[in-house]
Amino acid sequence: QEPPGEEAAEKEPDVAKPEGKEDPPSPPEASAEPTRPQAAACPVGGRPGAVCGECGKSFSHKSALAKHQKIHRGERPHGCADCGKSFVQRSDLTVHRRVHTGERPYACADCGRRFSVSSLLLTHRRTHAPGDGNTDANRCPQCGRGFADPAALERHRKSHLGAKPYECGACGKAFAWSSHLERHRRVHTGEKPFRCGQCGRAFAWSSHLERHRRRPHRGEKPFQCGVCGKGFAWSSHYDRHRLTHTGERPFPCAHCGKRFGRSSHRNRHQRSHAR
């Protein structure tokens, strides 16, 4: 008689199952597809979290997740009209545009120096903080400003003495402040970081851009006469034109009192008294 086969040898004896009970279901087979991060559990009293399917980063609001996902898709919908550089968020564009406008909305309460971003202001304010608890040792005796270390105080005191320790390597001109030297260097480098968003013209200094913006661009005539409809590029030209309708003569001669509608006519008349 042949010995029982392997199947018969490995066969386990039947065991009676308790009535009313069944075998527990077998665990599901592992999926070959990678699992994506699951949404974070909802905190008590809060909103369900949102998780990025690309990197697993979690956010408290779906709107924040939507903004974040633009990074993975390469979307940069907010473009700078001055230089064309684009950004994921509008707030980043707002900060960037200060490069062109020269806007510095963050002012130091101690010295008045202004900055374009709040982080630079926070870094700067540490120079006014007392150093090692010895406030008097790093305080300027002339203006009372405090500094974080003796070196910062020494640099500041030179401004009271008329010293100009920051010298331009190109022309030798010296300045009391390093920021003034940096601004001066644009004369030599030709750098013009402040650009007009309307015409594209660039300027080395923000003050020049602001002055340019106050002037009308070519072909613009924003000042229109309500009487005859004639347009003018300059408000001063518009004011002078209005006198032709009102008959007003606001420029009197200092010698005889005769009045004129234009200052140039008055000046020409006054020269006749000097002959």
TrEMBL record:
Major localisation: nucleus
SUPFAM superfamilies xrefs: beta-beta-alpha zinc fingers (SSF57667)
Subcellular compartments: Nucleus
Biased composition (Basic and acidic residues): 8-24
Positions of the UniProt region annotated as Disordered: 1-43
Keyword Transcription regulation appears in the UniProt entry: yes
Cross-referenced Pfam families: zf-C2H2
MF terms (GO), sorted A to Z: DNA binding; zinc ion binding
GO CC annotation terms, alphabetical: nucleus
Keyword entries, A-Z: DNA-binding, Metal-binding, Nucleus, Repeat, Transcription, Transcription regulation, Zinc, Zinc-finger
Residue ranges of domain C2H2-type in the record: 50-77, 78-105, 106-129, 138-165, 166-193, 194-222, 223-250, 251-275
Family from the record: Belongs to the krueppel C2H2-type zinc-finger protein family.
UniProt xrefs under PANTHER family: TRANSCRIPTIONAL REPRESSOR CTCFL-RELATED (PTHR24406)
Protein name: ZN695 protein
Gene: Znf695
